[in-house]
Amino acid sequence: MTHLTLEQRYKIEAYRNLGKGISEISEYIGKDKSFVSRELKRNSDGRSGLYKANLAYRKTVLRHKTKKKNTRFSQQMQDYVLCCLIEYYSPEQIVGRAKLECMEMVSHERICQHI
To answer: What is the pTM of this model?
Structure first.
């Protein structure tokens, strides 16, 4: 999946201001209709509902910066998981318990891979 360039966002803004529909915009920029629809929902101005290319770009950059990064499965986490497995906790319960104890933890899928 590719991201939108700033130029494509300006094209979306221009076509939206001309009153064009999502299908026409998607054909013009070469993206799927659902892609354009999600872009408009996700990055339109919350107050006015208008789509502005600069605002959409800033929102996207901020979302990517604050996105949770992958947590490394450290030896300490592995030891904790092993102790919990010995006590017959499921991977989902291990992750839930770690969250309650404010511990960093990998996903239950990663724990299953480790097992």
So the answer is: 0.59
* Within-domain flag for 82: yes
Q: What is the number of structural domains in the chain?
A: 2
How far is residue 104's CA from residue 73's CA, in Å, rounded to a whole number?
9
Q: Give the tokens for residue 9.
A: 């966002």
Residue-level pLDDT at 14: 92
- Residue 42 is encoded by which pair of tokens? 């996700």
How many CB atoms lie under 10 A from the CB of residue 60?
17
Q: Report helix, strand or coil for 73.
A: coil
Residue 1 lies in a domain: no
End of a domain among 26, 46, 66?
66
Q: Which domain holds residue 100?
A: 75-114
Please enumerate, as own/partner, the contacts of 86-90 that have beta carbons within 8 Å and a separation of 24 or more. none
